[in-house]
Amino acid sequence: MIKLLPPGLHVILGDAAGGIFTRVFFARDRLLIDQDVLSCGPTPPLTDTAAWTRLRHEYWNNIVPGNAGENLPSRFNLVQNAKRLAEAERVHIWAATGVSEQLFVAFVVNLMRMVGGDLDKLALLQFESIDGRRVIGLGELDESQLRSHAEPALMSTDAAQQYLNAWQALTSPEPTAIANFAREHPEANRWLRLAMPLMSRRFPDRRSGLTYWDHELLTRVAKRGPAVSHIIGFTMAETFDQGDLVGDWYLFGRLLQLGSARNPQPLITLSGDQQSIRNTEAVITPFGEEVLKGTASNYPANPIDDWAAGVRLSSADGQLWFNDGGRLARG
Questions:
Q1: What's the CATH code of the domain at 76?
Q2: CB of 84 closer than 8 Å to CB of 111
């Protein structure tokens, strides 16, 4: 049986999922696409959409030094068309279960409130599993799977508030609410409760001085290198089931930081193009091996200059937070 597209405006995360949606429903005029991955990079409080767009574009365009990338917004970009949220008879949020998908839902709810929209008009089409397999990102689905969507469920006032609470935690310069979210909000969407604590992994570990993704990459430099394409590919494949999909470009940027000449003690040695995943190689240094063994720490041997959600981390300015066994604590 062919399902008709519910009336109203539809929002979805990512160009891949947006392309599938368009092929299934032929309703591009009723679709807005969020082209960002909010689990990566800076997410300070959103008070102005133009400033927010500049900040996020600057982050993605500079994640690989000297390579501006291809971050080109479409005319269906969600942020650029945010006012349409307030005008729609209904706003349907299409989402899967992964970290970036749940943060996307929180972003849409916050954006709806910011532009003066009625939160009672929000509906959620939540994809949890297909054929017994968890759906982490909607870009994984094919046309028939997307077509088999469940009926949209109106978002209750309480559910909308939980997503707003998550957004406030994500954008706060004081990040303890991120790690504590699941415990303090037991009534929130189960996938949101899984997603938020995973964001605490963006903060460097108290003992190793590395973020979770830096540590995963360094481990695979030792085991899977020297080809960076292999290092990143295995990192993504072997962590996929965690539901924290950050993408190859983000991981490439993190890998380049591990081998940056600005580090007094680089953890890896890089060779090749260094603007191309396919044409770069990485070899772990003796210091990197010590960090992996736990006999040395990346910090304070190397400075920290980074973003973790809404928190600016800077060892030069004495602004540091660390992940201490899942608890976030000041440095």
A1: 3.40.50
A2: no
Question: At CA 94, angle to CA 88 and CA 97, rounded to 5?
Answer: 150
Q: Write down how long the chain is.
A: 331
C-alpha 184/C-alpha 88 separation (Å) is: 33
* Residue 267 Cα to chain centre, angstroms: 25
Do 187 and 217 share a domain, yes or no?
A: no
In this predicted structure, what is the pLDDT of residue 69?
Answer: 59
Name which residue leads in pLDDT, 65 or 269: 269
Sign of torsion over alpha carbons 16, 18, 20, 23: negative
**pLDDT computed for residue 210 by the predictor:** 98
Does 90 reside within a domain? yes
Q: What is the per-residue pLDDT across 200-251, written as a single tens digit (0 to 9) for each?
A: 999 999 999 999 999 999 999 999 999 999 999 999 999 999 999 999 999 9
Single pTM value for the model:
0.95
Structure tokens, 81? 């068309």
What range defines the domain where residue 184 resides? Answer: 9-199
Q: Residue 303 has what pLDDT?
A: 97
Q: Could you report the per-residue pLDDT of 13-39, keeping only the tens digit for each? A: 999 999 999 999 887 789 999 999 999
- Amino acid at site 24: V
